[in-house]
Amino acid sequence: MVDVTERAKQLRDVAYYPGCALEGSGNGYDVSTRAIAYALGLNLRDVKDWNCCGAMEVKNIDPKVQTYLSSRVLSQAVNKTKNNIVMAPCNGCYHNLKKAEYDLAHDENSREIIDKLSTKAGHQTYEAGQAETIHALDWIKETIGEEGLRERTKGKLAGLKIANYYGCMYVRPRHIFPEKDQGPGSESTSKPHFMDDLLSAAGAENVEFPLKTACCGGAHTLSDSDMSTKLVLNILQAAEASGAEVIATECPTCHSGLEMHQIRAEKRYGKKTNVRILYFTQLLGLALGIGPRKLGIHTNISDSIDFLREKGLT
Amino acid sequence: MPIHEKSLIRPENITSHDELVIEGVDVSGHWSTFIETRVISDYNEEMEQEIAALPGGEHIHRCWQCGSCTNSCTVHAIEPRFNPRYWIYLIRTGMESELLRDKDIIWQCVSCNKCTYACPRDVVPEGVMKATAHWLEMKGHVPESPSMTFDKIFTEQIVEHGRIEDTKVLMQFMKRTNQPLMQDWLKQIVMNIGMRLPVKWGLRSAWNFVFHPRVSGWKKAGAALEDYINEVEQHHKSALGDNKSKVATDNAGQRQLRAAE
User: Fold this and answer.
1) Residues of B with CB below 8 A from A61's CB?
2) Which chain A residues touch B147 with a CB distance below 8 Å?
3) Secondary structure class of A206 (helix, strand, coil)
4) Would A236 be classed as within a structural domain?
5) What is the DSSP string of B142-194?
């Protein structure tokens, strides 16, 4: 069995893969992740010269191209950044790196094609097992944990009602996440709870939210906007019906989808919802006493500054 | 009702009579509605193999029609005509004309993978939906879907720079699908957020827009990917029979032109 404290020590210094969305529309997630890493004394080393993981789009052109793109990121982490734990806060990136890992471990054809492409591109081929991909949730949970957060935050989020929204890519398809569904202590793919655990340790009240892993229609946020708006509206209304004041997110695509279609739903269907949308890292940052501007909260589309002031969190 | 009889109950297949006497028995009233006899002879026997040859469609033969995919489907809840189980049935039996009735909505799969999670036979219905949408386009049954346009813009940016820039993706997509860039909701977003954003944020976005974020030393990787994508396209084209796949030929042609420039 792996020594837990040894592993926690290892996770305090990880290769950080922000991904394209965190450089653009999801910048608040990047800023707040770095801010809490600093506050918690965790070291993030950016993956050197990282590229896009392929997102949800490239696999529709050809899945092997996506596997290659993700394998190059892992190769850069292992060979150039010299760190074999890759932390990806974006659900899309996290999912794709996990998927590449699975494909390279189980499919000879993928291995051949990825080797051929890597050689042509002039870098070392990534081999399954060289690195481990973790999500920002795993990272905080395993390094600081609920106990650590409880001590550091002193229940600062008390009185805040939160619906935790995990989205699709964090849990589906199940087979690419072999470490999940392994009994007590591990993450569940049908009822994920890591975000609930962390935020409740910081004092927040988690509402009973049935749509934790519902789809926001992020893949078609522009190409089939009406569908996305309907799916998002459903999530927003369910969160409000559950009594939530805030939806905590862990994916830049979900986050900007919820924000964008909250406005679109009002414009197109006259359905106004008031629930605020914040990254879980922004909420943890507030709990740790970091100012909202340092967490990029003012760059969110969903305006929650006044609300947070009312709650005494700024 | 067995799923293959679903299509029989359409209004055009039903005949009603106000007064009807059959072999001397008056069956007016409840017993006056009949389904027309149907004979199907135009099976497309290649359809399943062709879709199975496209990425995502590989495991279609495993399906035993339990319906877990449709039951768990995100899109089905909003658009009841979106029915993966039924389409897999039609593809496997070769009922092309029935499948073509739904050709304009198959691309709407949002890839949430709830079906993949629920499927007891590992059919990966999400992949089958993508393969079917791809097949419809390659065969020329439907024009390129907005989703495919989006995927192409995305992939082109990655092949060229290694990374994407979201403002550029948005602008190119609106342009290629002939939509005005300033949608009412987008204006609202810009207005809501514009007042709050620090100057630094604006400068950074403008910088990224002008100087596309790129990966140093990407050139070789980009070239390798472009070659590979072309190779795969040729392969798909031959799997579908050369002269039928008009769209694929056009794309390859455009790439060659671009390469020649």
Assistant:
1) 151-152, 155, 229
2) 60, 219-220, 223-224
3) strand
4) yes
5) SPPPHHHHHHHHHHHHHHHHSS--HHHHHHHHHHHTT--SS-HHHHHHHHHHH
CB contact under 8 A, A65 and B221: no
Domain boundary at A134, A164, A194, which?
A: A134
CATH number for the domain harbouring residue A94: 1.20.1050.140
Question: Residue B189 and residue A260: Cβ atoms within 8 Å?
Answer: yes
Residue type, A193: H
Asked whether the beta carbons of residue B232 and residue A62 sit closer than 8 angstroms, the reply is: yes
A202 and A256, same domain (yes or no): yes
User: Does A69 contact chain B (CB < 8 Å)?
Assistant: yes
Total count of domains within chain A:
2
Contact predicate B164/B214, CB 8 Å: no
Residue A130, in any domain of the structure: yes
Same domain for A188 and A62: no
Asked whether residue A64 falls in the same domain as residue A88, the answer is: yes
Same domain flag for A112 and A15: yes
Return the number of CB contacts < 8 Å for A and B: 169
Is residue A167 located within the same domain as residue A238? Answer: yes
**Over the range A173-211, which residues count as b (16 or more CB within 10 Å of their CB) and which as e?**
beebbeebeeeeeebebeebebbbbbbbbbbbebbebeb
Residues 230-289 of A with CB under 8 A from B: 230-231, 259-260, 263-264, 267-268
Tell if the CB–CB gap between A172 and B221 is shorter than 8 Å.
no
Top pLDDT among B86 and B17 is at B86
Q: What is the pLDDT of residues A209-256, one digit of tens each?
A: 999 999 999 999 999 999 999 999 999 999 999 999 999 999 999 999
Residues of the domain holding A197: 146-310
Residue in B112, B208, B198, B215 with CA at minimum distance from that of residue B166: B208
Per-residue pLDDT of B202-254, as tens digits, reads 777 788 888 888 898 899 999 999 999 999 999 999 999 864 444 544 555 45
Report the gap between the CA of B32 and the closest CA in chain A (Å): 40
Domain boundary among A100, A134, A168: A134
Any domain includes A140: no
Question: Looking at the domain assignment, is residue A242 inside a domain?
Answer: yes
Average pLDDT score over residue span A81-90: 97
| Residue of A49, A117, A303 with shortest CB distance to B225 | A117
Task: Give the gap in angstroms from C-alpha B130 to the nearest C-alpha of chain A.
Answer: 7
Q: Which residue of B has its CA nearest to A69?
A: B162
CATH number, domain containing residue A161? 3.40.50.11810
Q: Is the peptide bond before A63 cis (omega within 30 degrees of 0)?
A: no
Angle between helices B219-239 and B125-138 (to 10 degrees): 80
Chain A: residue nearest B215 by CA? A49
pLDDT of residue B14: 87
